[in-house]
Amino acid sequence: MKMIFFTDEKLDLYLIDKFFGRAMEVFGKEKFLSLLRMYYPDSPENVNEIRKFFEGNVKEFTRKMDKDIEKLKSRWLAVEKEFFDQVPKITGFDWKFKDYKCHLSSTFVFGGCYHCDLGNVISIFPSAKHADPLETIFHEMGHLHFWEVLEKMGIETGNQKFVAEGKLWDLSEMSVGIILQGLKLQEYNYILESHIYPQHRNSWKKIKNFWKGDFKEFILKSVAFMEKQS
Ligand SMILES: [Zn+2]
Q: How many domains does the chain have?
C-alpha cells in the first residue's frame, strides 16, 4: 500500500467553498481568522473575499509549500508501511482501498480534512505549525478508516460522513483517537485525552469505558450510546 501525494489548485478552491463557512462556525470567526492569518497575513475577512484572494494566488502559494512538502513526504515514507499495517491490527478491519491519496492543500490551513465522496482522498496543509501535518495525515486517515469500518459493519451513517457533523461524526472524532493511541511508531507518542474536543468531553467519559481492545465491540456499544444522546 502507498500514499500518493498530489497538488490540485481546483480542489484547493473547492475546499474554501465547501468548508470555510463551516470552519468559521466551528472555530468562531476570531479564531478562524487568526489561524488563517498565521499563514496568510494579507488574507481578507469575508469568505467571498477570501475565495478571491486565494483564486488569484493559489499557484504561488502552492509553489511556496515545496520545502514543507518534501519534508512531510520523507517523514511519511519513514512510517508508511507501519501505519498501513498497524491500523487494521488495531481495528480488526482491512483498509478498503489499495492506495490512498493525499492532496497537499495550500488553502486548508486548519490542518486537514477527508473526502468520503472521493473514497480514498484526504487533504492536508503541509506547512502547518499549530499542528503536526504528519499527525494530521494519521488523523484524517483514521476518519476514512472509521467510516470504512462502519460500512463493513452495516451501520447506517446517512450523510454524516460527508458533512462532518452529527452523532456519528462526533463518535468518529473520538474513535480516531483510539486508533492513533494504538499506533507504535518511532518518535510518535499520542496522548489521547489531550485531543478530545471540548464539545465531546462529556460523551467521552462514558465512551472511553467501551474500549477494551476490541474495536468492533467498541463501535457497537458506542453507536448504541451515541444514538441515545439528544
Ligand atoms: Zn477529525
A: 1
Calpha distance 113→19 (Å, rounded) = 9
C-alpha 132 – ligand 1 centre gap (Å): 13
Cα 173 to ligand 1 centre (Å)? 5
Q: Report the separation in Å between the CA atom of 139 and the middle of ligand 1, taken as the mean of its atom positions.
A: 6
Full domain range(s) for residue 186: 2-228
What is the per-residue pLDDT across 177-199, written as a single tens digit (0 to 9) for each? 999 999 999 878 888 877 888 88
Q: How far is the CA of 151 from the centre of ligand 1 (A)?
A: 18
User: pLDDT tens-digit profile of 98-137?
Assistant: 999 999 999 999 889 999 889 999 999 999 999 999 999 9
**What are the C-alpha distances in Å from 126 to residues 23, 57, 63, 68, 165?**
18, 17, 12, 6, 25
Strands 99-104 and 121-124: parallel
Closest to 87 in 3D by CA, of 96, 195, 189: 96
The rounded Å distance from CA 176 to ligand 1 centre is 7
Whose cell is 474554501? That residue is 16
Q: What is the value of pTM for the model shown?
A: 0.94
Query: Which grid cell is 87?
Result: 491500523
Centre of ligand 1 to C-alpha 179, Å, is 12
Helix or strand run (H / E) with residue 195: none
Distance of CA 124 to the CA centre of its chain: 8
48 burial (CB, 10 Å; 0-12 / 13-18 / 19+) is exposed
